[in-house]
Structure formats: C-alpha cells, structure tokens
Amino acid sequence: MHLDFPVIIIDKDYRSESTGGLSIRALAKAIEKKGFEALGVTSYGDLTSFAQQQSRASAFILTIDDEDFREGRAEPTVASLRAFVKEIRCRNEDIPIFLYGETRTSVHIPNDVLRELHGFIHMFEDTAEFIGRYVIREAKAYLDSLAPPFFRALTHYAEDGSYSWHCPGHSGGVAFLKSPVGRMFHQFFGENMLRADVCNAVEELGQLLDHTGPVAASERNAARIFCSDHLFFVTNGTSTSNKIVWHSTVAPGDVVIVDRNCHKSVLHSIIMTGAIPVFLMPTRNHYGIIGPIPKEQFRWENIRKKIESHPFARDVKAKPRVLTITQSTYDGILYNVEEIKEMLDGAIDTLHFDEAWLPHAAFHDFYGDYHAIGADRPRCKDTMIFSTQSTHKLLAGLSQASQILVQDSQERKLDRDIFNEAYLMHTSTSPQYAIIASCDVAAAMMEAPGGTALVEESIAEALNFRRAMRKVEQEWGADWWFKVWGPDDLSEEGIEERAAWILKPGERWHGFGMLAEGFNMLDPIKATIITPGLDVDGDFADWGIPAAIVTKYLAEHGIIVEKCGLYSFFIMFTIGITKGRWNTMVTELQQFKDGYDQNLPLWKVMPEFLAKNARYAGYGLKDLCKQIHGIYAANDVAHLTTEMYLSDMEPAMKPTDAFARMAHREIDRVPIDQLEGRITSTLLTPYPPGIPLLIPGERFNATIVRYLRFARDFNERFPGFETDVHGLVKAVVNGKPVYSVDCVR
Ligand SMILES: *Cc1c(COP(=O)(O)O)cnc(C)c1O
C-alpha cells in the first residue's frame, strides 16, 4: 500500500543559505530519495494547531543548535521544546520525534524531554544518507505498527491482487468496468474500496459470524481498548445490536423493563421476542425535551409494584430478564450507571444500556460513572452489563458500524456460544468488510492517549460554541437570541468539572423537577438550541420562531442539523468536529436573525423552500414564523405533545400478539376520528421527535387522538411543515386524504 505520510522537519533555517540550512535540506533530499516525502517548515506557529499534524506525519525532525542555548535563551528554548513534545505526546505516544543539532547541544536537553525522543541526530557526524536511512527505518516501523489486525489483513489481501472466483460478483470491481455507468461507479468509489469488498470465503481474513482469525483479533483489541470483557462488531447498526442482545436473553412471555423513551429497535425487539414490556416513564419538559427517568422508578420495590399492577406481567413468576434504557437521550441526558447497578444487581438478569450516542464516554474522565462500561468499573455480583454503541454516530465508523460490549458479573460469565446463536440470527451471512474494518480502525483511534485527546477536543469545541452563543447574546442579540440548553453558569474557558453538568434538583433550566442528587448529567457535546417563543413551562410568548423554519433555513445555507423539535433543534460535536466549524453555525444564525428582524422575503432567503411550497409566496421570514407560531400557540401544542407522551397507555394485548394480527390481516384500517379505544397493531411514531408514542397492543386514548387530529389539520394547512407520523396510512377518498391506523379487529 502506498502511504502518504511525510517526515515533517521544523527548522528556522530551512530556507536559508546558512550551513544549517544546507545541511537540513540535504537531509530532506536524502529522505525523499528513499521514497518518503519531506516537508520543511520554518516554525510551527500555533503549537496546538500544529500538533494536529501528528495524524499525517511519519516522523518529526526538530532542529536545535547552540545558538538556542546562548546566554539567557536556554530556558525559553527548553520550555518551548518541552511544550512541543508534550503537545505531540498527549495525542500520539509513538510517532518518532528526532532532535537534530550540534553535538554540544544535546547536553542541554533535560532528561524528561530526551526520554520522549527517538533520538538526537548529530548534525555533522554522519552523512545525510546515513541519517536519512535511520529516520526512515524508524518512520516505517512506526507506520507498520499502526494498523489494527483486521484492517491490516484486509489491506494486505486487497494489495495481493489474487484472482477471485468467489462472490461478490463484481470480482474486485472488474465487473463495473464493462459498462459506462459501472465505470462511473468504479471511478467514484475507487479501486481499493472495490478490491477490499470481499466475501467471507476468504479464509485469511477470519470470520465475523464465528469470530475467528483477524476479525476475532480485532474484536479482542477493541474489547481491550473499550475495557469490556467481550466486544462484538455488528455491521447492521445498533438497531441490530439491540435485537441481538435481546434475543440472547429474552424469550416469549418474559417480563422486560424498558425505557419508554427508547429507540424503535428496542420496541421491535419486544415484538420479535414476545416479551411483556413494563415501561419506565421519563420526565419531559415543555420544550419537548425528554428528561431522565427519575431515580425512584429504578428502585426494585417500585419496579415490582409496577409489575404487580400490570395486567399481563403480574402473573409471571420469574424475575425480569432485561432492563433497557437509553443512555444518552437525543438531548444528552446520562445516568449514573453505578447507582443503577447498585439498585438492581441480582433483581434483573441483564442491564442493557443503549449507548448509541455514547461510544466516546469511556475515553475521558469527564464522564466518570455516567456510562456503562469502562476502566476500573466494579462488576455486579450477579447481573450482566451490556452496552450497544453506534460507532458510526460519534466515532469514525462507516454507516451501520456498531458494537456490543459486555461486562461479566462476579458469578456469571457470558456464554459466548449461546450469545452467538442470537448474533447469527440477525447478522447477514455476507457482512460488509469495509464496515468491519471501520469498527476496527475506529477502536484503534480511541486508544490512549489519542482517543482521550479527540474526546477532549469535542468537549472543548462544544463548550466554545456555547460560550460563543452567549457572547453574541451579550453583544448583539440583546432583544432576542437563540439559547443553548444547559446549565446557566459556564466557566470562561477550558473544560469544566463534571459537577457543572450534573442536573440538580429543581433547577429551572432543565425543567424536570426534583431529580435525585447526582443521578444524571448532561453531555455537553449534544447541543440543543432553543428558539424563542416557548418557555420551559410550556407557555407561548406573543411571538416566536418555530424551529422547523430555522432548520429549513439552515439547510438552504448548507447546514443540516441532527434533529428538530417544536422550538428546539440539536447539533452534535462528534470527534469529526474541526476547530471553529461551529463558527458557521453562529454566523448563519445571526443571518437568520437579521432576516427575521427585517422580515426579508422568502424568495430571497429560502428560495428552495418557496419553490416547493408556492403557497407562501409573498411571505417574509417573520410572517411565516408568525403564522406557524400562532397555530402552535392557539392549539397549545407544547402541553398537548407533553401530555400525550405522559398519558396513560393501557396495554390491552401483548405487543407481539397485536403485531401478529397484521400478518394474518386480522385488522381494520381505522380513520383518526374513530381511533379512541381501539388497539393499535403497529408502532405509532411522530417525527419530530421520532420517539414511539403508541406500541402494538396499546389502546388509543383521547389525548393521542386529539394530537393526531391536530397534526392532520395542521399538515393540510401548512404544507412544508408536516408532522410525519409513522404508522399512519394515507389513502385518498373522493379526492381528500384520509389517515388511518391499522388496529386489531
Ligand atoms: C440511532 C439509535 C439506534 C440505532 O442505531 P443504528 O446504528 O442507526 O442502527 C439505537 N438506539 C438509539 C438510542 C439510537 O439513537
């Protein structure tokens, strides 16, 4: 494989005609002759930014000479050298760093700095060729050490160029070359992606399905990095990881304890396994932000009471098989896992934390016990801990890259054979090898100290964004400005103490009421931005800016946000964030404010939206906000959506039985107005927020029907702002749309 990792040389004389300049350029030339690029710079400018170069370099050579140690200069020279070494080493322990200088100079370098170096190169003692060979040998050894097991094997295989007689049918990409459109595809994705797209008949790569060879070595490597006892890569997303965890431990008729605010894959798991779900109810504030499940609900006495009053669960004698909670909600709420373990060890067999949004937490002390599995975390006596993580959501994984982490208990170890039967049930027999490689590489990237530095940078950038938003408010947006949801007191700089992000009982900013002390924290890398118009009590102001308008505006200006609610939307600071990328967000929001204040015409500020929705021709930005806000306020939508999620959902059938009625067509397609009292066969999920509202087997209550009526009427009147309710079936009768839900007959 051709690798493009230059040797970076830092020498203030790099371009000068002095002896030093000539000598360093001779070294650069010798390095280039050996096939490595040498990149010379005369200074590193801002050190922290420069240190990012560690990810693209194969070695650093730093020149230092006697001049630098003249009277009075020794101290600053050593200080800057030390700072350089520290900035590199806090990201990368292994990259070779060489000092290049005159012989006498080396005695000035203190030991703590020398220790971090790969060598001191004596300027005039050896030939440039000799030194070049030495540098390149070290650089190569370093690069050779980088690739984790599976990625290494895959690149070797793809390079090898052997002819394949096995699937996939495109034979390393050759098939694509036989047609023009195929060639386009080939050119776009490139040779390597296609050569590396191999099938599981290739023995030297090992098998994902039975965890052998390089795949297994990679999973072990990742387990070590994530500090879990077992780790399994999953190539079909955390949607599949959740189903695997469930099918490995839940059977028909089992009682399971589930966060009502869960991803639909967990509800699918309930349906597929035939379990009887007993739900824990999270709090909500009137911004529509879902809060934590109060600590009281986790106490075994309270769970037991819930089971005893549940129409189907109360007859089950066995203890619940699994508890699944969303660990990091969309808005970034986390639970103290050790407290949950303490409350439920032994009472429930498996605690499953759906950490789709939290794979980064193990790599920074900031998160403490507020994630499931990590270094030095105590084992439960009896209960097993599972975490499912979407590598692709916050780390550097390809879409669908996911993993399952397991911590054994003191008394039980995971039976990997039994577990794998469930794994096989949900995994394709033709897994995508590029996804496996990305799981492997994403894990290797998080190895200390690099991983810690990456997470630290995400947190730091997220905090800088929050500070920048407050600054705008103080300097510019005094009349109105967007708020970033979070604690009121933020320090001026740096990463704060975790304590600042703990949700304290009764604080107004969160609006979740009297939470237990220390039970929850907010992950600052999730930034929920609140638009004006609604306060945390659910009261509408005279004017307001529905978030959907802001996000549509942003989309037209090249910013796609993660999720949008009524008066809030949210963005994330993944490890892919670059310094100051959030600046564009801040400036676009300022542009929006300008546009709003001046009521600029939509044809000017949102032309694409207008082209699709001619109904709003002649509107200004402010007019549009006013109208949509008015409708929301008139219908008291904030209270309505909060109430509907908190309303009593009466289970009338087991979810799996209600769902099965669909397969047998024992259902009626019931229009919205007749839904009250009927039992749904399907999941009903409004977007936003994308959290399932009603689950197969539950009855429609009046509040939910009222909401659906509102959504229907609103959608008719305001095209472009439709609330999409997944589970509603649309039909056109006499030229008018009719929305129905498939209900049990
Ligand atoms: C996204 C998500 C999933 C599913 O993950 P995919 O990798 O998209 O399949 C599961 N749980 C939660 C909480 C999620 O947000």
From TrEMBL:
Superkingdom of the organism of origin: Bacteria
Family: Belongs to the Orn/Lys/Arg decarboxylase class-I family.
Record flagged with keyword Membrane: no
PANTHER family, A to Z: BIODEGRADATIVE ARGININE DECARBOXYLASE (PTHR45229:SF3), CONSTITUTIVE ORNITHINE DECARBOXYLASE (PTHR45229)
One GO process term, biological-process aspect: L-arginine catabolic process
Example of a GO MF term: pyridoxal phosphate binding
Residue ranges crossing the lipid bilayer per the database entry: none
Enzyme class: lyase
Keyword Lyase among UniProt keywords: yes
Full protein name: Biodegradative arginine decarboxylase
GO cellular component, one term: cytosol
InterPro entries recorded: OKR_de-COase_N, Orn/lys/arg_de-COase, Orn/Lys/Arg_deCO2ase_major_dom, Prn/Lys/Arg_de-COase_C, Prn/Lys/Arg_de-COase_C_sf, PyrdxlP-dep_Trfase, PyrdxlP-dep_Trfase_major, PyrdxlP-dep_Trfase_small
Residue positions, PTM N6-(pyridoxal phosphate)lysine: K393
Domain called Orn/Lys/Arg decarboxylases family 1 pyridoxal-P attachment site: residue spans: 388-402
Native organism taxonomy: Bacteria, Pseudomonadati, Pseudomonadota, Betaproteobacteria, Candidatus Accumulibacter
Keyword vocabulary terms for this entry: Decarboxylase, Lyase, Pyridoxal phosphate
